[in-house]
Design goal:
The chain is of the alpha+beta class. The chain is built from nine helices and 14 strands. Strands 1, 2, 8, 9, 10 and 11 form a six-stranded antiparallel sheet that branches. It has a six-stranded mixed sheet with strand order 7-6-3-4-5-12, covered by helices on one side. It is elongated. The relative contact order is 0.17. The C terminus is likely disordered.
């Protein structure tokens, strides 16, 4: 399989240090997403960065499920979110952003909070929250990891509204290097090099060229890429289940009033329609709760 023109994530490690990295490139995913929503340029850029960050963070986790980034604020975007599953299925949305004109992170998301939710299949949800005080999404995520006292984690994100890319570096528990001072020195070394990265380099260079330009003096091992894609998890079955959770008399009333019940997915604009025949097995009678 050729990954030359595909959206992907790609892992790499430093053989002489306890540091790993992830690279992400998104092109077709943004095209598919922005076909569905007429977002302003600044909204597209931030949403592209959010999707890149979600894909990068998901790649660092050993789990089956999904990771959700969600930011709320008093700025021009009331709510924006991106979601990535463990197998790199991506979707995202910005709500209430019809009048957003800025391309500045602090104006788009002023007085905001960023929530990172890990939702494993068959497990308990975990959520962490950070106040959006930095001037970029990447710096806000850096602040989250710094305050959570986890292993050192840094992100670099870029989007031009048509494509997005990102780089993540993360410290690993001591194995190769035991000395704390040397570990700190190695971490400072690679993050200082990554800080020289420009947005156009991140967006235009392939992973091999990018990593060589940054870390050609280090022992870096690049693993095979993994495909990523825009994909919505909505379905007719899930939509039916949401309606079926209502009381039967409410369902009956809606059907009598409108003839059918529609469910619209705000992520992909798919519309699911249900009429009385779809609910025949529920034996709709007023005031009788549905058994699940």
């Amino acid at each position: 399989m050729s990954f030359e023109h595909m959206d992907l994530t790609q892992r790499f490690i430093f053989d002489d240090a306890d540091i790993r990295g992830e690279y992400v490139r998104l092109d077709h995913s943004l095209t598919e997403l922005f076909k569905l929503h007429a977002y302003a340029p600044g909204v597209k850029i931030l949403l592209g960065e959010m999707l890149s960050a979600a894909a990068l963070l998901t790649a660092t986790l050993k789990f089956e499920g999904k990771l959700i980034l969600q930011a709320r604020g008093d700025g021009q975007i009331p709510l924006i979110m991106a979601e990535s599953t463990h197998d790199r299925k991506l979707r995202g949305i910005a709500r209430g952003a019809e009048h957003a004109t800025s391309q500045t992170f602090t104006e788009l998301m002023s007085e905001g909070q960023l929530a990172i939710t890990i939702d494993p299949i068959g497990g308990n949800r975990y959520q962490g929250i950070v106040t959006l005080e930095a001037d970029s999404l990447a710096k806000s995520l850096d602040a989250y990891f710094e305050q959570s006292e986890q292993l050192g984690t840094r992100l670099w994100l870029a989007c031009d509204g048509e494509r997005a890319a990102g780089l993540l570096l993360q410290q690993l528990p001591p194995e190769v290097t035991k000395d704390p001072a040397l570990r700190a020195q190695q971490w400072e070394h690679v993050t200082t090099l990554a800080d020289t990265l420009k947005d156009d380099e991140l967006l235009q260079l392939d992973s091999d060229t990018l990593l060589y330009r940054l870390f050609h003096e280090d022992e870096v091992r690049l693993f095979d890429p993994e495909p990523a894609e825009f994909s919505c998890s909505c379905s007719r079955e899930r939509s039916f289940g949401a309606i079926a959770s209502l009381a039967r008399d409410d369902i009956q009333s809606l059907l009598q009033e409108m003839g059918e019940i529609t469910v619209d997915c705000e992520f992909c604009n798919m519309q699911y329609r249900f009429d009385h025949s779809d609910f025949s097995e529920l034996e709709l009678q007023p005031d009788t709760p549905i058994q699940h």
